[in-house]
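Submission sheet (multi-component)
Chains listed below:
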Amino acid sequence: MKTSIATVSINGSLEEKLKSISKMGFKGVEIFENDFLVHDLKPKEIKKIVSDYGLEISLFQPFRDFEGMPEPYRSRAFDRAKKKFDIMNELGAKTILVCSNTSNLAVGGIDRAADDFNELGEIAKNRNIFIGYEALAWGKYISDHRDAWEIVRRANHNNVGIILDSFHTLSRDINLDSIASIPKEKIFIVQIADAPKYNMDLLFWSRHFRNMPGQGDLNVLDFMQTLYNTGYDNWISLEIFNDQFRKDNRDVIAKDGYRSLINLSKKNEIVERTKIKKIEFLEFSVKKEELNIIHALFNSLGFVKVGHHKTKNIILYVFGNVKFIINAEIASNEKNGEFNPYAFGLVVDNVQSTLKRCKALKINNVKDFYLKNKFKMNLIEDNGQYIFLIDNKKWQNDFNFLDQVNQNSNLEFDHIAISVEHSTLLSSVLFYKSLFECKKISNTDIIDPSGIIKSHVIENKSKTFKIVINSAENNETLTSQLRKKKYISNIQHIALRTDDIFKLSKKFNELGLKTLKISDNYYDDIDAKFGLETNILKKIKENNILYDEDSDGSFFQIYTTLINNSFFFEFLQRNKSYDGYGANNAIFRISAQKKLIYGCHT
Amino acid sequence: MKTSIATVSINGSLEEKLKSISKMGFKGVEIFENDFLVHDLKPKEIKKIVSDYGLEISLFQPFRDFEGMPEPYRSRAFDRAKKKFDIMNELGAKTILVCSNTSNLAVGGIDRAADDFNELGEIAKNRNIFIGYEALAWGKYISDHRDAWEIVRRANHNNVGIILDSFHTLSRDINLDSIASIPKEKIFIVQIADAPKYNMDLLFWSRHFRNMPGQGDLNVLDFMQTLYNTGYDNWISLEIFNDQFRKDNRDVIAKDGYRSLINLSKKNEIVERTKIKKIEFLEFSVKKEELNIIHALFNSLGFVKVGHHKTKNIILYVFGNVKFIINAEIASNEKNGEFNPYAFGLVVDNVQSTLKRCKALKINNVKDFYLKNKFKMNLIEDNGQYIFLIDNKKWQNDFNFLDQVNQNSNLEFDHIAISVEHSTLLSSVLFYKSLFECKKISNTDIIDPSGIIKSHVIENKSKTFKIVINSAENNETLTSQLRKKKYISNIQHIALRTDDIFKLSKKFNELGLKTLKISDNYYDDIDAKFGLETNILKKIKENNILYDEDSDGSFFQIYTTLINNSFFFEFLQRNKSYDGYGANNAIFRISAQKKLIYGCHT
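Outcome: structure written.
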């Protein structure tokens, strides 16, 4: 793939942008005109900088309000174009983007526009410039790539082609088949952007909310597939206007951009995304001197010690199908050794091909992790998340097993929730979507008394892997508060699924587990809302069980109190086809947990 | 006015919210149900807390998906209502908000809904509860207050009335006259909210972007006027869903809310907004030992010393109609004494009535300002902005004047730009709009290489007072960088208007003023864009003059370099009816200034 990105997609000075773009692996760069105009250097000098960074200028843009103008504006537009063509030659830019006219002065008409482009094509030809015409979704007369293509077809000039932009096409739900009928050599460049599915003014949406392919909700994959069917193999270029990206770390944005393009590669160009079979285990770090207290905690959660590492101070606990590993070998410094879940093990189709894909996506394959790679497992890392990749049960060979305990339980991993910095939320979504076969299935705002928590849910098709990615802008929200300790990882909430919440709750009572106290007012509301049977209501209230239901089924949840002031467990039961995460209950869980931190309502 | 605010409008725990709401002067509070449900205290205990804070519960809300339901949902909805009514009685809440049904299960029909409300009215009557029905702008069948009113009219029950919400009515452009035909006693409560004029999904807009009346673009003033015409004199209650407010300082939000309500008072309830005649002067602080260098600077800007304070070390400079005062009496600590513009003097219609309005709006009247009130002038302060209020020329009596210099110049104040924290941007807009007769005339995004600058322009009708309020979320933007020194005030940019920019430019050359160097590439672009005459282009390029034009006229700008790394001057000329601020040139000015700070392109 010929990867390219527009300078407007990241922040900084032109040099800073070029440096970052080059470093992250792009081959081409679109020069957004203002980035060049504000510069003191002459076009020729900038040309040299671009080429010193090993980059090619894929596009010079934008050129506005050109086609369909009446005189004297028409002549002026041609004069303007000539001057820009001359500068492009000095700059070393071959292709210019002309976007469809938005001026109220424009007259419209397909033939008039085609004539304008034919005439401009002749001028461009003499200067060795190529003109790409793009339909802005909010253009005055031309807002659909099919109309832009008709103009280009009638302009009938070798130096005039079309520019496609996934946002302009997908935001208007234009039939993608129409792309397949454009000859590939008439597509001068393709711009790619995704966006969350908002129903708003197209210009406003485009200018503020675009994001990297895979971070939003548009069907960029289908767009690319149709494009590939034309045989197109020229630049694929990111053009991302995003308020958040304008202030975030440019290297992170550029890396995500590069990753998002690799994720759009043609079939067979890189190894496919990996299928996750299941979560195999969750691993905790612990200090040696805390092993006893953690043992007591795990026992109260119903977990039983089943094995011990043959040579190291690492212990395996099991409850039903859930395995917890505690690792007392990590105490290289105090914080890292503190009790905390820091990684999970995923059973995948093929570890080696997953690692190949990691390499292509610039995801770290941790070779010399300071925790030491005790089980000879492959560990990958991204944005402070650690994942062990496993394709068989060999890792258990390192353990001596105690007599197997029959727990008679179907406990399973339901989901894991992580908490990330607001600025890396989309980055984390892209990490999972680009490496694994999984989808973002929802995007919810959770109300914390101190602000909004953005919560993205990612699942694989069989729902054996579900991860919730939370972030908040406000540092007083619970999700941010718990992150304050800055442990190795960002796992905050471990949700385990049972098929009998009342049996489990009874067991917890016997084991003496302290569950999270929920307010009486909550249960009055549940009563009013759902009209539960009196004995069920009594039982859930007595046992701090939260309840939800929708048209698909019902849902029970028990939370533990906060552990080490940084994470907690949830035990849940899904009845019938209830598929949610109890979002309505989140504010009650959060309020109750905040009381534990502050000792009072906050 | 019976002032009220919904708990959902500010962040924190219920107690924190009530405390802030009470402190800022509200008499009533809407209890948003979740704020109460998450609480451990019983309804009766919360009732006591509310009353201890001197507050009355104006409304309990929301009650959803009630009217027009088929069985068995209808019965369940009635059961749910009964339980809520009982809780309301314990809580001491008299009125409940029922919002129009959004459930797909609802059947619709005006008469069916009216019957439901009549029946619910009877239940409510027995429990001494009043039911207010509100049309959500996105309700399934009822999305218009006129339809809600028809249902209430047909329900024909003393305990059933309508609730109006300015957002739901104004967001759908519903004719306001329809409000005037509702009997005032049938309006149980009025909710008020403003919002920026965005074209987007109504629910999304409402949930994320509402703001305080006067901070947005909706015609809340007309809404209130029509409401007052009905004779309504019950609660006016803020119900503001805003992502930013959910994380900002709750006292600031609550104060702005209170101010926004006072600003909506009936005519004659408080003194009217003040008319600004003009900006009289700008005052700078300076250290004594720097007086000489500042004198040199002012001279290079064309200013001439014309007077000296009779008893203090305060000097008056004049250029045309622009007066600068430098005050060397402020050095109570080092920072405050540093050279910086810290206040401006406004000539207003009537100082005493302005001060009365300040009091009602909770704007500080600075009595014992640490700078000392040298001219016996009245000084007001809000959000770190200082304004002297003047209604005559008496202040000049404190000065001895030198022989008057004939400068033969028409230099005028054009505008002053201030830079505020992102979280106080809307607060600053409201400050000006609520105290003075002025309007927000535009709201622009300026692109800084490090992020977006939100720029709101406020003007009075005669355009003798214009202020630009800038803020950015990213601290690397120029506007944030210049604010780093945290001077007394936040004045960052002083724009003075001439009627002959070339004459002025020549004068600056003679005086040796260093103007801000603009890139050559900029002038190539201006050439391509506007096709200026060659000699004009040459002249503006040689003199670092920026150019803009629109259909109304043309515009010239000269900037100084940065002064004390914290502010700068602009000299501008407006031709014909050019009314803008050269927003297209801002990125060039910003880039050039950033080079001065960092010594290179950033």
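Remark: The mean pLDDT of chain B is 93.
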